[in-house]
Amino acid sequence: MDEVEIMKLIGSFLVKESEEGVSEEELVETKEDLLEELMAIVDQIDRARDLKVIGGFQTVVELLNSKHEGLRSRAAELVSIVVQNHPEVQEWAMDFGVLPVLVALLKDDKPAVVVKTLLALSSLIQNAPAGIAALKEHNGVGLVCGLIVAAEDRKTQVKAMRLLGYLCATPVDCTEAMAEGEIVTATVEAISSEEHQLREAALTVLSYWISNAKPLLQEKASQLKAILEARLAAIEALEGEDREAVTEEEDLCVLILEQL
């Protein structure tokens, strides 16, 4: 059986609300397994278009709105795969209204769902100014900033910070949304985090701000300078592979200090 036929079979099962002789828990577990299989199939650019054979984004949106965490998170991951580096499918997803559904999931109370949603949004707006504009319109930028400030889950913070860094690098101006709340404070303080990925993502954001949105940092300039100098001192005390692992951090710290 070819992959398209397999996708059709998967799609026909994913839309089932019940199955005779099967408990709800078993049904959900089977759907989760089938979503994993589907992701493996569509993780090929020539198969992403074939999502239409399972009902397209109608089925995906229904799963994103599922009451079951495992289905929501896997559906979001599926979106991240099928739209990545695929303008045609990005546009198709945008036209179908997938972005507002994903933005709503940024408020989900399950960290695993939020992490996959951040991945999906990152893929959906990649090289897509219309997608970034829509994210702004639906307050997505503000919600991403809010996750950086308040999320207790470290993976969520890292993914949100990386998405913020991507937004900073685009020609679409998101500065106004970033100027609200405590995002600047949270980003500056993240440089002192014990988590390497969060430090690097925060420094990337700050490097864009210092170059293109310097007014955001005016009130935090002294604090930022002290934190950067402390981080550089800590890096200089490292040796061997530990030092090599933070080379990009070091370069970003120097770059930001030079422009403060």
SSE layout:
Blueprint: H1 3-14, H2 24-42, H3 45-48, H4 56-64, H5 69-83, H6 87-96, H7 98-105, H8 111-125, H9 129-137, H10 140-150, H11 154-168, H12 175-178, H13 183-189, H14 196-212, H15 221-236, H16 240-244, H17 247-259
Provide a descriptive summary of the structure in words.
Helix 7 runs antiparallel to helix 8 (111-125) and helix 14 runs parallel beside helix 17 (247-259). This protein starts with a helix and ends with a helix. It has helices at residues 3-14, 24-42, 45-48, 56-64, 69-83, 87-96, 98-105, 111-125, 129-137, 140-150, 154-168, 175-178, 183-189, 196-212, 221-236, 240-244, 247-259. It has 17 helices and no strands. The chain is elongated and about 65 Å long. The model has no long low-confidence stretch (mean pLDDT 90). With 260 residues, it is mostly helical.
Sheet bearing the most strands, described? none
Approximate strand percentage: under 5%
Overall mean confidence score, pLDDT? 90
Provide the structure class. Answer: mainly alpha
Q: Give the N-terminus to C-terminus distance in angstroms.
A: 61 Å
Shape assignment:
elongated
Helix content: over 70%
Number of helices: 17
- From the alpha carbons, calculate the radius of gyration and give it in angstroms: 21 Å
> Got a strand count?
0
The helix/strand series, from N terminus to C terminus, equals HHHHHHHHHHHHHHHHH
| Unreliable runs | none
